[in-house]
Amino acid sequence: MLSKVITISQQKGGTGKTTLAVHLAMAFIKYHNLKVAIIDTDPQGSLGKWFMIRTEKKVSNENLTFKTASLWGAQYESKTLKNDHDIVIIDTPPKIESDARPSIEAADLVLIPMAASHVDFWATGAIVEIAKKANKKILAQINRSSKRSKLIDKTKDFIKSLDLESTQTIIGNRQIYTSSMGEGKTAVEKQRKGNAVDEIKKLSDQILNQLN
């Protein structure tokens, strides 16, 4: 597989972009033996804080590289990192709209997380428009949502109304995702089995199939 860039983007805050970024990164490393780089373009720096805690606690960073960049600098940084990484993941800040363009133009796949929520529906259109104009492959990810939610079917219908493909895995609103990040880890490192592990492993499989 040639090196690929995944940009995780969504206008609305709180959709779980950073949590998704680190969990996918570690799943690619653990289950697919890939070398992964993650780029933090969010001034809030949540991804950087996670990596600092991880480093301080001496958690293994084998096959994992962390970088920071501006939204505009992410395009150059990702191009450089592709030379010696299998996957580069760009984590973007909320409320970016047109500023997202360089990170989206750098991507082979744009992953758009959204909860089963009308507020998330309203925030999704602008990012989709930018990604479509850039002629990028797009996947919607239903995130932080219960399969039993009354809005799941409406969410799926909304995704179809935008002529988007959705991943086959709904990522649940599980405590292990956030609690593991507070330790500089991920659910796939904290648990050998469980719903979160199953979700992330299946999602990593699906995304690699899309990229291939």
Structural description of this entry:
The chain is an alpha/beta fold. It has one domain: 3-Layer(aba) Sandwich (Rossmann fold). It has 9 helices and 7 strands; from the N terminus they run βαβαβαβαβαβαβααα. A 7-stranded parallel β-sheet has the order 3-2-4-1-5-6-7, with helices on both faces. β6, α6 (152-161) and β7 (165-166) form a beta-alpha-beta unit. α1 (17-32) packs across α9. The longest helix has 17 residues, at 195-211.
Largest sheet entry: 7 strands, parallel
Helix/strand-derived category reads alpha/beta
Q: Which topology does CATH recognise?
A: Rossmann fold
- Number of domain units: 1
Low-confidence stretches: none
Considering the chains and any ligands shown, give keywords for the structure:
Rossmann fold, alpha/beta, seven-stranded parallel sheet, 9 helices, 212 residues
Summary of the model, kept short:
The chain is of the alpha/beta class. It contains nine helices and seven strands, in the order E-H-E-H-E-H-E-H-E-H-E-H-E-H-H-H.
Secondary-structure blueprint of this entry?
Blueprint lengths: L3 E5 L8 H16 L3 E5 L5 H11 L7 E5 L5 H8 L5 E5 L9 H5 L3 E6 L3 H16 L3 E6 L9 H10 L3 E2 L8 H8 L4 H4 L4 H17 L1
Parallel strand pairs: 1-4, 1-5, 2-3, 2-4, 5-6, 6-7
Helix pairs in contact: 1-9
